[in-house]
Amino acid sequence: MELRTAASPKDVRYYDTKRLREEFLVEKVFFEDDIKLVYSHIDRIIFGGAMPVNKELKLEAGDELRAQYFLERRELGIINIGGDGTVTADGEVYEIAARDGMYIGKGTKDIVFTSKDPKNPAKFYMCSGPAHMTYPTKRILKDSKATKEYDVEIKPENKKELGSMEDANHRTINKYILPGQVESCQLEMGMTHLEPGSVWNTMPCHTHDRRMEVYLYFDMPEDAFVTHYMGEPQETRHIIMRNEQAVISPSWSIHAGSGSRNYTFIWGMVGENQDFDDMDEVRMQDLL
């Protein structure tokens, strides 16, 4: 498990491009037949990817957690951005199709990932935060109908269409894990898709001192990129990001992006509260 420490905004003002990327960017999230995890000291989030191809992958605690198993004191959110796969949680097998997700509660001991087709492997993107109690494990269906007692369909009000083609930010926010749909201790996750011809996300931008965030950008060809904007509103910085790369956003930082074409991104949040609308908006004319 890779460890990332917290960073002060006073220090980040003086980072060059190399240092910015070292501190905040994760250049490769998915490795064949392996699990890649990053532990950030910022609100103790853990995020990463599992990509089973020719074998099953088991989620282990690792020495960094000083725990008997990964979810001894944690909760976990998953969204599959690859082919169809399965997640087995304490012996229960959950079929997780492309773009579907899962919430696994504190206390689940054994978690195993597999793919249905090695030629089109699943890519399970994960975010985990500390948990103080156990909430039920759920399978989260983006577009399908519920067939099991543990299924949750994303509610219409949690598929929010925003922006316009004229402003190049026509996008749909799909909220997977949040109060009123899938209960959790502090974790929230969702996926935002930009329509063809749109490139801007989260603009006008904002900060939220009570929550940090991690973005995973994907659905881009090899020659495309997203310019991710971060930093204090009057001390903005940028990081060039390629397909399936992730970036850490501290609570004091803006988090927005503009791409060379449309793309999709997953956002994961942990922190003080779970109020999705608790944010401090920044006027466009105040950015520097």
From TrEMBL:
Identify the InterPro entries for this entry.
KduI (IPR007045), KduI/IolB_isomerase (IPR021120), KduI_N (IPR027449), RmlC-like_jellyroll (IPR014710), RmlC_Cupin_sf (IPR011051)
Quote the record's cofactor note.
Binds 1 zinc ion per subunit.
Q: Which CDD domains match?
A: cupin_KduI_C, cupin_KduI_N
**Name the record gives this protein:** 4-deoxy-L-threo-5-hexosulose-uronate ketol-isomerase
Q: Which gene encodes it?
A: kduI
On whether Oxidoreductase is a keyword of this UniProt record, the answer is no
What Enzyme Commission number does this protein have? Answer: 5.3.1.17
GO aspect biological process, one term: D-galacturonate catabolic process
